[in-house]
Amino acid sequence: MLKKVLIANRGEIAVRIIRACRELGVQTVAIYSEADRDSLAVKLADEAICVGPAISKKSYLNVKNILEAACLSGADSIHPGFGFLSENASFAKMCDEIGIKWIGPNHEMIDLMGNKSKAKETMKKAGVPVIQGSEGDLQSVEQAIEIAKQIHYPVILKAAAGGGGKGIRIVYNEGELRKAYELVKQEAKSSFNDDRIYLEKFIENPRHIEIQVVADELGNVYTLGERDCSVQRNHQKVLEETPSAILSQKTREKMQKVVKNAIEKIGYTNVGTIEFLVDKNQEFYFMEMNTRLQVEHPVTEAVTGVDLVKEQIRIASQMPLSFAGEKIQFDGHSMECRVNAENPEQNFRPCPGKITGLHLPGGNGIRVDTAIYQDYTVPQCYDAMIAKVIVHGKTREESIAKMKSALAEFVIEGIDTNIEFLLKILSNDKFVSNQYDTSFLEKEFGKKIH
Question: Can you give the pTM of this predicted structure?
Fold first, then answer.
């Protein structure tokens, strides 16, 4: 087993990793920026090292400082969490070169799957259904127009190195495509320092379904069911659930079989998620693969009883999965809501500041992953998510009722949050009756969600 893990992240995921390490008897090192000096992760970790000022590029994205902190503390491994450097292949490679274990897939796999067009081609060869589109990166707007004529509009332009909903444009005709081409390249360059883009057929009114995978270095490969992530705002997830109420058992089993075969063929290890669009006919198409832990991993943990973070550490320690050789049992239904420090009534304006009052919900089947506490000041320089509420019930109906109860009990004073907006989603007739897709929020809440 690994002895000491440096956590190259912040907020609730850093706290989540610290707790998993504690249960395994593994020492932890938290890194922090000057803005996070009083963070919960710093208080809970065995050691904590400042890696720079508040701005992310000088702290949580500062590879040199993070590696120096790892060496200084004697950490034998790094867990990147999600976001920041979690899918940075060069960082993972540097760790490997200096003998620090990267808790995740190897850097070659991160590099392969990080380029969306290469990932698509790899999955296609591995037998995974893919959406029609460009073969590799686009070389010109004329090439994009020619492909769009062949596969028909609407089409979607995407950044090859994209993620987080950035570098994406849906176009419905040639005029829009000409205008969007350079805009997407510019956004890709500014967001990812990589202006390569590609084109795909746009699947209208789909569900966004992802399959969780976990594979050790000894040949044990498992799929841990699906998550429905169709409730999105600007291509960013707001609420996730498992199992998906839209999938037939036949489609569910087919998706998991296709994914398991692909993971075995490409030799992937550690945890990862393959994301799909599923159309009204239950046909599914590969979107991308995330080579890291997902924000929404707790819903999978709730229905399987598998601690994904502990399994990551076991895999990185070259140990078999704790459930290797066993059949995974899926129990009930789970749902997660992302609580953000933002004001939905003011165009989701971020609302950093001091938390003057706090009450976290509790009860049977209710879990809160967070790093906030009474009198904590939410910094203005990071992502707005401050908590995740996860519920587990016997049925989807029970999960919705539990989530509404939990959110109604959740009190955060001193800053604005999106809790009331989440309650509106949970009370929406289309959501409750499972009549929704990835355009749900835009259709039901209109301009308010932009």
Answer: 0.90
What gap in Å lies between CA 268 and CA 303, rounded to an integer? 24
Report the relative pairing of strands 4-7 and 77-79 from DSSP bridges: parallel
Mean pLDDT of 391-409: 98
Catalytic residue among 292, 338, 367, 396: 292
Q: Please tell me which residue, 440 or 160, carries the higher pLDDT value.
A: 440
| Rounded CA Rg of the chain | 21
The domains of the chain, with CATH numbers, are 4-103 (3.40.50.20), 132-201 (3.30.1490.20), 207-449 (3.30.470.20)
How far apart (Å, rounded) are the C-alpha atoms in residues 129 and 423? 36
16 is catalytic: no
pLDDT in tens, 81-120: 999 999 999 999 999 999 999 999 999 999 999 988 789 8
Three-state SS for the chain is CCCEEEECCCHHHHHHHHHHHHHHCCEEEEEEEHHHCCCHHHHHCCEEEEEECCCHHHCCCCHHHHHHHHHHHCCCEEECCCCCCCCCHHHHHHHHHCCCEECCCCHHHHHHHHCHHHHHHHHHHCCCCECCECCCCCCCHHHHHHHHHHHCCCEEEEEEEEECCEEEEEECCHHHHHHHHHHHHHHHHHHHCCCCEEEEECCCCCEEEEEEEEECCCCCEEEEEEEEEEEEECCEEEEEEECCCCCCHHHHHHHHHHHHHHHHHHCCCEEEEEEEEECCCCCEEEEEEECCCCCCHHHHHHHHCCCHHHHHHHHHCCCCCCCCCCCCCCCCEEEEEEEECEEHHHCCEECCEECCEEECCCCCCEEEEECCCCCCEECCCCCCEEEEEEEEECCHHHHHHHHHHHHHHCEEECCCCCHHHHHHHHHCHHHHCCCCCCCHHHHHHHHHHC
